[in-house]
Amino acid sequence: MRLSSGYEDRKARIEMLPLMDVMFLILVFFIYSVFSMSVHRGLKVDLPAVKGLHMKGEQIIVNLTAESEFFVNKQPMAFDDAVSATVALWQETGAPVLISADKAAALGTGIELLGKLKIGGVDRVAFQVSGVPHNAPAAIKAQ
After folding, report:
1. Is residue 60 within 8 Å of 95, Cβ to Cβ?
2. What is the CATH number of the domain that holds 59?
3. Segments forming the whole domain that contains residue 117
4. Alpha-carbon distance 89 to 83, whole Å?
5. C-alpha–C-alpha distance, residues 2 and 83, integer Å
């Protein structure tokens, strides 16, 4: 004797609710992973600590190390080559120039770089800083 349960006549089907839950979890994972990525296109230098503004968008980064070595967008160059390459990049893109100088670098070298860039026609130049000064009161550091 064979009993009929009623499941023999049913067609197979895919449940949509668990599928949608999995897709939303994957979407959330990718969104959080994109937000956690940070883009830093520079060399490791010990920046001077001072409160400054945050620049967004494309930038031309000129690094000056403590040993007075120059890098333009991570490419090592001599001083005059760095100035001419920076001016050429600025004329092509119009992007602002960001000087990222180690705080142990010679001040005169940074000022000379700034002056040559100004002579070359670059009008949007800024120095990169690390944030709040080390000797700032605790109330300012907490903000």
Report:
1. yes
2. 3.30.420.270
3. 42-143
4. 10
5. 91
In the chain, the number of structural domains is 1
Within a domain: 89: yes
pTM above 0.70, yes or no: no
The tens digit of pLDDT for each residue in 12-63 reads: 777 888 889 999 999 999 988 887 776 655 566 666 665 655 666 788 888 8
72 and 85 Cβ atoms separated by less than 8 Å: yes
Length of the chain: 143
